Amino acid sequence: MRRSGRPRQQILSMEKNILNSMAWNLTVPTPYVFLVRFAKAAGSDKELENMIFFFAELALMEYGLVTVRPSLVAASAVYAARCTLKRSPIWTETLKHHTGFAEPQLLEPAKMLVMAHAAAPDSKLKAIYKKYSCEQYGRVSLRAPAVAAPQRLA
Predict the structure, then answer these.
(1) N or C end of the chain: which has fewer CB within 10 A?
(2) What is the pTM of this model?
């Protein structure tokens, strides 16, 4: 037996009216929302911040990360950036607390980001690589890809 879509439409319409009357704006969460908070938790300086955003933009091009939660992509960008810049410790209790992710959860997505960084100079799609090779972004894309934690990302 098939139900009529009418009650559903009425409920959705009423929800829309309520949200509009409260002046709410609903959006889809993107990694950027999480990046700002996670970068702050990482105690980022400008170089680390640029590297984090470089990895986050590389993630947009990675098919394997399309279905990954935006918060996990953002945390993985922080992890990959800290590995690339040889920050120690790579993952802290503070980062674990603020991101909600333990280091083992970040290894696969971070590995994908590091591999994308390694492949970027020879890629056909170089816009992100070129953008982050400019002085304005600290030339972070020109840094050697992460090998600081071979047991983790290798």
Answers:
(1) N
(2) 0.81
